[in-house]
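Quick check before the chapter quiz. The format below is the same one you will see on the exam, so make sure you can read both the input and the output lines.
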Amino acid sequence: MQVSDFVKLINDTEELSAKNIFKGCGGVLVSYIAATDEWIVQFLDPYNYGAFAVAKAKTKDLKYSSDMHPDWIKDFLDEIKGPDFYTHTKLKPPKFKEHDEVILINEKPQYVEAGIKKGDKGVVMFGYAIRSKWDVIFSDEETGFDIAELEVHEDDIKVYKDIY
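Here is the expected output.
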């Protein structure tokens, strides 16, 4: 294995579980710590694409998945040199799951432009977010017709009712 390889965590560890990083979580190798046979890994959040946590993992707990595409390596190496890269130390548990009924609690211009206002209800469409934004379909409560499908920041909605 080498820097920029994609890996998968194959064993749960107490240290990583405390950071919401569990068996099956994918990541990218950042650097090798020879004295400890550990890697610093950028673990990718499976519930919030674009989010990640940087943590150490033992080589025996990682399985090689694939090489990083050569066109992406320079961007990755630049990213790990960024000032806040190592401040991402824990994955957040997902706030929502697919089909959660949610209510808009914060009104923003982009929501109002789409015809959605504070108090409107919708349904989360997928079990993951992209950069903390969830795909939500808002419907008219009286007619049941869809009003809008929007990417809504997770801080702007809360669970109204768990459908399942």
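If your answer matched, good. The radius of gyration is 19 Å.
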